[in-house]
Amino acid sequence: MRLTGDAELITAVARVRPDLGVSETFGWMQVAPETLRQPQKPIEAVVEWLPEQADTEVARLLANSFPDAEAQPGGCGVRRWAGIREAGELVATACEAWSAPDLGVMAGVTVARHARGRGLGRALCAAVLTWLCAERGRVALMADAGNTTAVRLY
Description:
It is a single chain. By secondary structure, the chain is α+β, with helices and mostly antiparallel strands. The protein has a single domain (25-153), classed as Aminopeptidase, CATH 3.40.630. The protein has four helices and six strands. A six-stranded mixed β-sheet has the order 1-6-5-4-3-2, sandwiched between helices.
């Protein structure tokens, strides 16, 4: 279980309930269509919504490159996964999870370790953010404060 709330409130709760503890702080990031920027350098990658049959591949990729991801295939609130394939292998993924009618939420963003550093995460995020902004009007995501790579990417 992960308690979500204002950092001061969660810290106060953890003082009263030491069994809960504070493991990591995070922040919300959001984008509206008018502020959405496309990558400056185009990336040659095909991003697509994946069929449900790809859930096993998504789970394997997450287990290898983002085992602590809050969003998991088949998990509560997870609607669909997007991905990038290279030579048939799923090398990057992100999902829509916990969305509301006027707010899409992107989660579970990861790139296979051997495919990092080439802009695949940027291409994936740009596509998913664009799609969710078009469908819902706004998009948000959570990023652990200590995950500087993710914060920089987003």
